[in-house]
Structure formats: structure tokens, C-alpha cells
Amino acid sequence: METAEGTPRRLRALPSRLTNQAALSANRIVDRTLAAAGVRRYHYALLAALAEFGPASQAALGRRTGIDRSDMVATVNELADRRLLERAPDPADRRRNIVSITAAGRSRLTDLDRLVADAQEEFLAPLPAADRRRLVDLLTRLVDHHGDRRRAEPEA
Amino acid sequence: METAEGTPRRLRALPSRLTNQAALSANRIVDRTLAAAGVRRYHYALLAALAEFGPASQAALGRRTGIDRSDMVATVNELADRRLLERAPDPADRRRNIVSITAAGRSRLTDLDRLVADAQEEFLAPLPAADRRRLVDLLTRLVDHHGDRRRAEPEA
DNA sequence: CTCATCTCAGGCTGACTGAGATCT
DNA sequence: CAGATCTCAGTCGGCCTGAGATGA
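Above: the input entities. Below: the C-alpha cells describing the complete assembly.
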């Protein structure tokens, strides 16, 4: 039987692959943790944006959370069904829905904060505090550089 | 118009989210780069494993690359169609296919190595060499700790 | 019998695109 | 008119499961 197989040298230290593998682990942990509360990452992100910035249009929420306009519709629907947020037409701009968090939503968000913190702890378990800071710093620089933007550079 | 929107505080420095965002950027860059050569990440990983370890069964290749047994079938099919690898029954164990890279596959892999290196450079652009090493080190520790395994811990 | 291997036939989520209706 | 907003419909790749056939 072939049990102890190694990863190819070309792949082993490839930064893009390492980042992706780490993200897979992180997402697995966070998803499992949030699933225990019956929510997904998008739900947490959306509630967080609403709690911190107040009522907003779906387009604005998409910009703040990185959730696509198309997925935003479904995410808002799901949370509205559970009464964790409310959607109402904007009287000042009738194209828009104004989305607001409810009291139940705020309360749920507080619970989720704890779960998310636990998940971070599990994800970062092997790293002491100083290394965690370094990691956050390095990743922040990468993410800032590439921008949340999904569009490519129009340079030609 | 609402152009300059910030990310919620709760999300901004969340390690799991930063890792995921960085992975998104990395994958976008690598995918776009490889797409120019008509291949996907799985193709590169599979060719790399074949070139470095020699002919192997599909199950062994899956263990080395992390490609699922189910996706492996399709990936091998695609590369076999392009004559970048060959699949032959193992005379010693008739359950197995022995997959081998072809000369064309090796040649293509060399081209892809260059593209992948360019993509890493683009991904890591904002980081000087010392920081790149640190990042690889930190991510490696995380990935090693959580294991490539997809199964959860049976501890209870 | 158990176990490994290969294959097919799916599911599911996240990221994303196109297009249309509505409105500024 | 251009441009923003919301919605629906659908694509795609990656990750994953179940189950069957074959064979060690």
C-alpha cells in the first residue's frame, strides 16, 4: 500500500497554493462553526456590515462585504426570512431597497462573534501571538495591493 | 453616489477572511495566467506530480496532489486527450491505471513553470523577499498543522 | 471477506456573467 | 441619453459523496 506520499516539489512551497490550502482549512473551520448556528459566512458578513454602518442599499452592502450583487439578493432573502434584517423600499430613491438589521439580528450577531472568534483560534492554533500579527500584516498588504476589486486592470 | 466604502471592522482583520481574500486574488491571477495556455490548476498539479515521481496510479496521484478521486478521472481524461499523458492498465495490478507523462507533457510543463512563476511574482508583488519567506513559513505551519486531510477530527 | 482502485452520477457552494426592468 | 439598482437565470470550477464493478 502507498500511504506516505509527498507533495510535488513544485507545489509544496508555491505561495498561491499555500494560501489556497490555508484558506481551505480556514473556511472549513469557519463554515463548520457557523453551520452549528445555522448560518453561512455571507450571513455573518452581511449582519456585520449592517450593524457597523447602519441601514444601507444592497449595492452598498455588496461593496462593503464583497458579496456579489447576484448573491446578495439570495442572502438578503434568507436573512429576511429569519427576521434578522428588514428590507424596505427607499422613499428617496425608488430603485433601492434599504436593508436594516433587526434586534434579533443584532442579538444573533453577538452570538456569531463568539463562534467566529473560536474558529479563528482553531485556525491559528499553531501560531503564537507574534506570528499571528505577522500573518495578518502580510496578508493585509497583499489584499490591499490587489484590491477587493474583481475587475482586472484596464492597463494595455 | 457611494464610492468609498469601508470593510466592516469585524471582517477587516479577520485572519480566516484575509486568508480567503488573498487566496481569491492568488487564484484569479494563477487561473488567468494558466488559461492563457489553455490549462487549469489541476492540470499543472497533475503534470508536476507525474514529472517528479514518475508513472503512478490515479489513486496515488490524488493523494499527492489533493485532487479528489472523482475529479481525477476527468482531469486525466482531459490531459490524455491532449496527449500530455498516457494511461495504461497496470499488468501487475489490473485494478489500476498507470498514468505517465509524455514528452509533450514534459515540454508543456516547462512552459507552465514559467507562467506559474510569473503569477507568483504578480501575487507577491508588494512583498520584499524576506516577507515572502516569512509568509511561506507561516502558511506552511498552518497547512501542516491542519493536514491536507479533508476529514474532521474524530475526537469527542 | 475485506480492502483498494477506477468510474459514473450526482450535489453543493462560492464566484461570476448577462440581461432585463426600473429608476435617477 | 448614461448610469445605478435590483432581480432572475444560468455558467463554471472546486470540493465532496455514494455506489457500483473489478480485482488483490
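Note for the figure: Confidence is low (pLDDT under 50) at residues 151-156 of chain A.
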